[in-house]
Amino acid sequence: MSRSGRGGPLGRAGVPGRRRSLGGAAAAAVLASTLTACGGGPGDPSVLTWYINPDSGGQAEIAQRCTEAADGAYSIEVAQLPRESSQQREQLIRRLAANDESIDLMSLDPPYIPEFAEAGFLAPVPEDVAERVTEDVVESAVEGSTWDGEVVAVPFWANTQLLWYRQSVAEEAGLDFSQPVTWEQLVEASAATDTLLGAQGIRAEALTVWVNALIESAGGSIITDKAEDPENIELGLASEAAVSAAEVIQLVAESGVAGPAFSTAGEDASVVGFESDDGGFMVNWPFVWPRALSAVEAGTLDPSVPEDYGWTIYPRVNPDEPAAPPYGGINLGIGAFSPAPELAFEAAECIVSDENQAYYFITNGNPASSIPVYDDPAVLEVFPQAPVIRESLEMAAPRPQTVYYNEISGSIQRTYHPPSSVTPGVTGEQAAELIRAVLAGEQLL
User: Fold this and answer.
1) CATH: 3.40.50.140, 2.60.40.10, 3.40.190.10, 3.40.50.10540. Which one for 3-158+328-395?
2) pTM to 2 decimals?
3) 145 partner at 20 to 30 Å CA-CA among 67, 134, 191, 260?
């Protein structure tokens, strides 16, 4: 899946309090895709299956931890989904449409949660559970777990993009990152220092992430009225905010500071440029940090490179308007056809305990949705960016929450790509026309 729904290589120890604390030291990452159930057998409702997105073994380890902590009440087996989030969605929807009882828990990319909830594929979250799992959780993760005014999933880990910069380049350009900076300032600084400005121009979900963040940062939204009838959905793609967003895309693309391969650059390609001698500035997810440290350890990156890294909040579109950074991550859905939803919710609360979120942050690089985790000394030792990540998550804006997200994202990717073709006042209207035609069944993506 895209990094909007995953972290890089590298997540904490425990914070006692509202969530149940789990005992025991962290074991080595479990590499097997399926765990051995404790005392269960075929058809045993106490054996829960958790469909997970690929990671570095963290979810399997958490499943083992919670199995041990349950003391026989339940056990958790994990089943791995495909890497791409769109393929994960497709596989889960096909199985749930067939009333598949084997899906007890599932790791869901937030943009697809409304579709699953509206289709009746998610078991209703009990009110007391909803209260517990949203207490002391960053607002963007709560919003990403909510549909039609109700919490329909359990917040697990939350992701956001930071503005990364090379301190030496920022000093040369005279940029003061103790103050907010704009995209225009970054383009000017990159041009003046002959360095790269990394952004994601590839025709993929990463492009939708960028377009949405720019429009939200300019004070608008891709969808301004969700509406149940697709014909009545109101879009903000022709708004003043959307025009401002298109101006940023045009500026970055035409300036040349994003590099010659900008139209094919995803998150990983952006990092390669940032790590090079031409690196200057970049917007990207926190996986950037553990990736650099791992490369240093492997001897493929000079230690002076990450030593030169700086990080701050996502750039602004307008100087006087706060940025709305991207929000991603994974939340937990409970299958509507699970024979043991009560046990599944109990397991979900164990999975998202502060202790497990911290472990996942430290070992797999996936930031927590729980606010107290960001004060954990073990987290701060591994991720000095943690305070900025937390601040960014409090400011972050989810992508459009709609049951038609797949169609809307696909339409945006088609019309806003390549970035060099984006025309303010035109591209947004073209995207809106395509979305309406797709929702009306008049055109296929």
Assistant:
1) 3.40.190.10
2) 0.89
3) 67
